[in-house]
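Whiteboard transcription, Tuesday session. T.W. wrote the structure tokens on the left side:
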């Protein structure tokens, strides 16, 4: 009963309050019929955001139909499944790393903790994003709450990139490692608090949100260049080994962000990419690739750290 109440209350928090109530039906969707999809011109304002995606919208579905829409085809299907499957892959990587990967490298308990925290951050990011795309069509309130979770999920995902990266790059420079880890926690904590304010999540602050996200990503350039300098420049073997991976990760981030902001390719052919190939779907896929690439790079630098002694003061 207590569990029921707790779960009921959590649904209320997220405005998915009719998940168990088939009486509450909205839009033109039936209980047993397929979920009806709508055109851009017919959807409520809170679902509008990309005029180049013309069809395939789910509108005002009760919670249980939002869940059922997981298994029906709409313009959100690839957005949802790209991050559900990405989350599953990263979950299995986490199990593999803890049981086989890290022990085979003779990693320490700290390595287990750092790698696991990074992968949990990625999973949180992907799951909150999948949740947003699944439940955003329920109501305006649900869309706002899940958007807040989705945006905080992106922050947590970025944190999952920063923490292992700084920990292993500055492994032999513990003072700078702590300085950057503390700075990162303050920056992310500040943005997290800002996102708790509902006003910040409105369309009016869209540009400011984008600018802050770009800045918090770009901030990583400072510790990266500082690390190259502290390591003695690009001739150092670890810099040669790890710095190109940082560059590739940034290129992936720029590619993902370009899709996110430009609405390419659908802006060149409105209606063509409604279900497959739209910019938001490409952004999702590149985000998963960036997480997997960063995890792979992290494992390589972990192996390097284990097999090479610190040579810095
Ligand atoms: Zn998304």
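and on the right, the sequence the group agreed on:
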């Amino acid at each position: 009963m207590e569990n029921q109440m707790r779960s009921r209350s959590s649904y209320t928090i997220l405005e998915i309050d009719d998940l168990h109530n088939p009486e509450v039906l909205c839009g033109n969707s039936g209980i047993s019929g397929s979920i009806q999809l709508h055109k851009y011109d017919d959807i409520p304002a809170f679902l509008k955001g990309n005029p180049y995606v013309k069809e395939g919208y789910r509108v005002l579905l009760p919670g249980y139909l939002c869940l059922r829409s997981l298994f029906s085809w709409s313009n959100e299907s690839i957005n949802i499944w790209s991050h559900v499957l990405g989350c599953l892959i990263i979950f299995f990587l986490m199990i593999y790393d803890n049981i086989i990967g890290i022990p085979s490298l003779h990693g320490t308990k700290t390595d287990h903790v750092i790698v696991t925290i990074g992968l949990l951050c990625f999973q949180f990011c992907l799951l909150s994003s999948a949740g947003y795309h699944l439940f955003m069509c329920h109501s305006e309130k649900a869309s706002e709450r899940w958007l807040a979770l989705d945006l905080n999920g992106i922050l947590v995902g970025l944190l999952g990139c920063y923490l292992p990266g700084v920990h292993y790059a500055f492994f032999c420079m513990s003072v700078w490692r702590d300085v950057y880890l503390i700075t990162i926690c303050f920056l992310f904590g500040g943005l997290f608090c800002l996102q708790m304010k509902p006003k910040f999540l409105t369309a009016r602050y869209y540009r400011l949100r984008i600018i802050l996200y770009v800045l918090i990503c770009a901030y990583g350039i400072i510790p990266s260049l500082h690390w190259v300098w502290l390591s003695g420049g690009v001739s150092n073997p670890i810099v040669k080994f790890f710095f190109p991976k940082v560059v590739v990760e940034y290129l992936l981030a720029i590619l993902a962000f370009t899709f996110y902001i430009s609405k390419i390719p659908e802006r060149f052919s409105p209606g063509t990419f409604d279900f497959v190939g739209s910019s938001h779907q490409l952004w999702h896929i590149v985000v998963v690739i960036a997480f997997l690439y960063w995890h792979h790079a992290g494992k390589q630098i972990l192996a390097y750290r284990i097999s090479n002694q610190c040579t810095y003061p």
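Someone added at the bottom: Confidence is low (pLDDT under 50) at residues 1-32.
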